[in-house]
Amino acid sequence: MDVRKVATLAHLEISDEEVALYTPQMAEIVKYVEQLNELDIGDIEPMLGGLTDEGEATVTTREDVVRPSLTQDEALSQAPSPVAGHFQVPKVL
Tens of pLDDT along 7-35? Predict the structure, then answer.
């Protein structure tokens, strides 16, 4: 695993000490993922959600029902400085 290449792709600067630290860690991660890729999951149905504390499957689907919501004016009434029907937010760049 070329840690420097991964760091470059992620736009990270790393020191030689960090390369020495992360190289074996990344190798272990890749090794684990390769083990997962060897599993035969052809007969397993994909699942949404997870399990409850008791181990029961959670229900994550519901009917798509139209419900009342705020109008644009109601939503903007709480905005500190709405502009032309939109929320005005500070620049982040």
Answer: 999 999 999 999 999 999 999 999 999 99
CB atoms within 10 A of CB 32: 10
- What 85-88 contacts at long range (C-beta under 8 Å, 24+ apart), as own/partner pairs, is none
With respect to residue 91, please indicate whether it lies within any of the assigned structural domains: no
Residue type (1 letter), 77 = S
Burial of 82 (0-12, 13-18, 19+ CB in 10 A): middle
CB 87 within 8 A of CB 72: no
Residue 47 is predicted with a pLDDT of 65
Q: Where in the sequence is the domain holding 17, given as residue range(s)?
A: 1-37
Spatial contact of 14 and 4, defined as CB atoms under 8 Å apart: yes
Overall number of domains in the chain: 1
